[in-house]
Recover the amino acids of this structure.
């Protein structure tokens, strides 16, 4: 598993607490997608399992370390939803928690890793809570969540919250420069679109994904001239919610530009489109547009069996009703 330089501080701080015998039995890591929290949890797990740690490093030579390296350690458990499912049920949680009360097969620590605690159903969360309240000896829980506030308050209260903050933009850009061939403007735009998460940025900059984002940007001028339905082919895909997010970021940038905050825009590689939006539409129309698109995105994500093409078509026609009168009335 890859290790990332911005994880070093968190790794040292967390394991220093364990060295001082003050490590919390349940660590809840708050992290954006693409921050490498899985690598952090893996590194912590390896140290906890190691029989002969060298300071803050696992030895890599003992039998537990070798088992961790091959992914076959019997006392390390990964709890997540089955492939194709979005929720983690009570049966999976009970299956693991029952094993925790048995003697560790390697005679050391037992570690449970939940890559996305938000997948827990309420029943599963309550089942896990019972073990978190009175955990077996030398048992550690590592949970990760994008939005801990959505978890059961009783579950959160049993954990130590650790915020894995995105690194400084300059540090991230330097790291990205070593791992991709994109220019500075493209790297900066992708990093800001990914909310500062470097690994997610690298995924966004992959040729196929970046080209999809470019298609949305390139279709915008025709839409603003009155042909809003020309945006439909660029938006109507399985990841439509993500593509709407790219469109919304352009609208937010236009508001920033109107307010004199051009240096803070995300789409630095698409400044022409941002300026055009800012000059064509008054702030009230941009604000209304943004709210409409966010509502559309929410419906895509949360309405069961929604007809995506029909919803997008309706939204584009509604958007046309907002921007046409506003553009006609604009002094620019």
């Amino acid at each position: 598993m890859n290790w990332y330089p911005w994880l070093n501080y968190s790794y040292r701080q967390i394991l220093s607490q364990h060295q001082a015998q003050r490590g919390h039995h349940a660590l809840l890591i708050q992290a954006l997608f693409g921050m490498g929290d899985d690598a952090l949890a893996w590194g912590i797990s390896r140290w906890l399992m190691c029989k002969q740690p060298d300071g803050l490093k696992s030895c890599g030579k003992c039998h537990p370390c070798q088992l961790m390296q091959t992914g076959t350690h019997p006392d390390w458990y990964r709890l997540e939803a089955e492939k194709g499912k979005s929720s983690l049920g009570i049966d999976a949680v009970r299956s693991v928690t029952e094993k925790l009360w048995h003697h560790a097969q390697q005679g050391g620590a037992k570690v449970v890793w939940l890559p996305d605690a938000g997948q827990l159903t309420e029943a599963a969360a309550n089942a896990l809570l019972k073990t978190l309240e009175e955990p077996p000896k030398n048992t550690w829980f590592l949970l990760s969540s994008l939005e801990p506030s959505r978890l059961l308050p009783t579950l959160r209260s049993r954990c130590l919250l650790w915020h894995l903050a995105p690194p400084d933009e300059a540090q991230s850009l330097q790291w990205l420069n070593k791992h991709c061939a994109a220019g500075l403007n493209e790297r900066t735009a992708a990093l800001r679109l990914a909310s500062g998460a470097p690994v997610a940025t690298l995924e966004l900059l992959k040729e196929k994904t970046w080209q999809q984002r470019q298609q949305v940007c390139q279709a915008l001028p025709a839409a603003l001239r009155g042909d809003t339905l020309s945006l439909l082919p660029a938006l109507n895909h399985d990841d439509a919610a993500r593509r709407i997010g790219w469109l919304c970021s352009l609208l937010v940038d236009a508001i920033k530009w109107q307010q004199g905050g051009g240096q803070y825009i995300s789409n630095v590689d698409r400044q022409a489109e941002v300026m055009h939006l800012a000059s064509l539409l008054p702030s009230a129309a941009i604000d209304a547009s943004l709210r409409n698109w966010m509502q559309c995105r929410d419906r895509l994500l949360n309405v069961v069996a929604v007809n995506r093409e029909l919803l997008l078509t309706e939204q584009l026609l509604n958007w046309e009703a907002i921007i046409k009168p506003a553009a006609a009335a604009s002094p620019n």
Observations:
- The CA atoms of residues 169 and 196 lie 7 Å apart.
- The mean pLDDT is 95.
- Residues 206-329 form a domain with the Zinc Finger, Delta Prime; domain 3 fold (CATH 1.20.272.10).
- DSSP finds 15 helices and five strands in the chain.
